[in-house]
Queue: 2 jobs
Job 1
Amino acid sequence: MEQSPLAIDHVGVAVPSIDDALHFYGDKMGLSVVEKLDLPERQLKVAFVQAANMLIELLEPTDPNSTVSRFLERRGPGLHHLCFGTPDIRRHLRDLQDKGVDLIDTEPRPGARGEVAFLQPSAALGVLVELTQPPGETSPAPPENAAPSEVVVDSGADAAPPTATEPPPHD
């Protein structure tokens, strides 16, 4: 059984200041802010900016010892992760694990906008990949002829998992 390709939900961008980033993405690029969140338990401030076909998640660390802060120290501001949306994150994670993909999260965790999980960057050729299942998304029913444990996900390469408790480090 073939599944349609995964859609990019958002691109995560690590920034030292959300306000400065919003000056560029909002004032100069003309994009609008969809949501701003303070996530003290994750040591982050997050803002989602709407592009025509996806979101940009701006990640500002609020603690110098956080993973995003360490990312900024090592690499400077820029692309942090690529996030794909999935209608059934648990099945997707099981399928990726069955295919031998190294996961950071074997179970989803709460993210800024639903449940998320991350893949090891080494599994995706150096890219930190996140999967997300937005709140309220229901898992699709398995095909009538599928065994209860059968998972059918065609994720292309190894790319296909979740978003942001505090994003894991990306080295």
Job 2
Amino acid sequence: MRPVPPYSVNQRYYNMLLMTKSDSAIRRRSFDKVRTADCFRPDNNKTTMDWAIELLQLEPYQHILEIGFGSGRTLQTLGRKLQVGFLAGVDRSPENYLMALKRNRRLIEQQILQLHLGTVSELPYPAGYFHTLFSNHSLDFLHECPDSMHHLHSLLRSQGRLVQVFQPKWAPSDADLWKVAEQVQKKFSESGLSAVQISFLEMHPVNAFAVVGFKP
């Protein structure tokens, strides 16, 4: 297993945490409350969380990054299952960062997990560091900047996978759901990922989809 980079928090976002006491100020800076609000949160949906973890195909010594970790519950579950390996998470929401920090303090102290407040492009990891990248119910990273998907591609090692699970509450029909899934599939392919596949999970009130792609 490669050495773990020094733990870091983006200073610009950390200063915001210390200086602002206003909920509205936090909401203005949080993508989590914009696009992610259009889906069912993973904290209330264990089914999609379990499905995402299944798609990761966990093995010992893997390095795994979650993009948009919410309250940190999925990372907590992964920490129990992975046992030997390394986990990281990045989220733009100060509220989520604080919740995940509290929930996963033991994993952080054991140097199994690092949490980052900021964007994908600001992560400190070298190219080819992660076996798997995944996002459960957050499409924010697809819209961050034109280079965000290419940066994720660079973080993956050869044959590494990127997994996206999403359950959009605004897609009332299977046709609408398929359209969203195809848009994500296109983003994956444009970034250089190959063998990009879409799968669906029957749920209520709206089905969920997963997109999985691999770095050649």
